[in-house]
Amino acid sequence: MFFESLNYKEGIGRIEWVELDEHHQIINSGPVDLGISSHLSFPNVFEHENAVYMIPEAAKTNCINLLKATDFPQKWEKVHELVSGVQAADSAVIEHNGLWYLFTTHGSISVLTMDLELHIYTSDKLESDNWTIHPSAPLKIDVRGSRLAGALFKRDGQLFRTAQDGTIRYGRRVALYLVEELTPTSYKETFVRYIEPNWENEIDRLHTYNVYDQTVVLDVSRDKLRFTV
């Protein structure tokens, strides 16, 4: 399992990994070397043609990077630049009906909407120089559901997208959408429900929601005052 480890003092995120046993207990862990020195977060990790790839958020590089594991899970190298000239946040790819789709968030209208614009790029192969922006982009400009909250996933033949809802505060809860239509020229999704951080009293925020086979990985936090009065 890969995740962002944030140094709050420096404000710099790094990617780390943990290995879990069959009971989901941590048995090993360590840092990840991606060869990128800027802030890193939101590692979208997936397998394709017997290789493991990662698309991390590295907005300050002004591109969306595709990396491949050379010594899994510690060592990775950049193998392609999927999209150039954008400061993109929280990107993820999915292969759907024979094509690749890259979901991401970046600005095109204003600096005020950089984290609010949902964009999709399409390609006939993963390592391509011809990722094409969707003609309807930006498909959504909304603090309630533009920015991804994890990788897209399929369940019972249906495709779902999770998104961050930041109406109350950053990382407050996750919105679940059913993707009803996804083609190079059309996109349609329907809101299903909010996933609230309400199953434990001490959890205040739910930031990401990832589904892998029968396992769900959540990123949660709780608000705690540093000082008492």
List keywords for this structure.
mainly beta; four-stranded antiparallel beta sheet; 229 residues; five-stranded antiparallel beta sheet; 0% helix
Structural overview:
By secondary structure, this protein is mainly beta. The protein has no helices and 18 strands. The strands form five sheets. Strands 8, 9, 10, 11 and 12 form a five-stranded antiparallel beta sheet that branches. A hairpin with a 4-residue loop joins strand 1 and strand 2 (12-20). The termini are far apart. The model has no long low-confidence stretch (mean pLDDT 94).
Largest sheet descriptor: 5 strands, antiparallel
N-to-C SSE string, H for helix and E for strand: EEEEEEEEEEEEEEEEEE
The number of distinct β-strands equals 18
Q: How much helical structure, as a percent, in the residues?
A: under 10%
Instruction: Supply the number of helical segments.
Output: 0
* Mean pLDDT level: 94
